[in-house]
Amino acid sequence: MDASSLNDVLDRNTILTNLNANAKDDVIDALARRLREHGYIASVDAFVDAVHEREKEGATGIGNHVAIPHGRSETVNKNGVAIAVLDHEIEWESLDDTGAKVVVLFTVGASGDGANEHLRLLSLFARKMAKQEIIDALLKAGTIDEVIGCFAD
């Protein structure tokens, strides 16, 4: 995938809204299952393990109730992103000590190309999420179209 804009990477099939989850593991598992269903990863368990390994390295909560975990793994078939807007805030280690209500989970291939593509994706999302109005809209998003609208170019 050569992502030149977020429109190229957003997949309606990997966006969940009003997700009822009580812990980080619930969210990661729900998103990984969705990624598996739509061909982004070959194994939910292997991918979830990779995400957990990355979580041990440091906080993936970037603040403002947003977390951006990722898993770099051989099980990744194609780089992509799954997004969950939760129905309530959950505990998540973050830079500003807020929990998470929006989780943007990236799949990262194990090859060098996968890592480079991940950095491009991260940059595209980071530019959008640096704007408070985008964060505010994401936190209120109740439909897939509203989530996509937050990231539209």
Summarize the structure.
The protein has 153 residues and is an alpha/beta fold.
Can you describe what's shown?
One of its GO terms (molecular function) is protein-N(PI)-phosphohistidine-sugar phosphotransferase activity. Residues 8-153 form the PTS EIIA type-2 domain. It is a single chain. The protein has 153 residues and is of the alpha/beta class. It has a single domain (9-150), classed as Mannitol-specific EII, Chain A (3-Layer(aba) Sandwich). Helix content is 44%, strand content 23%. The chain is built from 6 helices and 6 strands; from the N terminus they run αβααβββββααα. Strands 1, 2, 3, 4, 5 and 6 form a 6-stranded mixed sheet that branches. A hairpin with a 2-residue loop joins β2 and β3 (66-67). α2 (24-37) packs across α3 (44-57) and α5 packs antiparallel against α6 (144-151).
Question: Which helices and strands occur, and which strands form pairs?
Answer:
Blueprint: H1 6-9, E1 15-19, H2 24-37, H3 44-57, E2 61-63, E3 66-67, E4 70-73, E5 80-90, E6 100-109, H4 112-129, H5 132-140, H6 144-151
Parallel strand pairs: 1-5, 3-6, 4-6
Antiparallel strand pairs: 2-3, 5-6
Helix pairs in contact: 2-3, 5-6
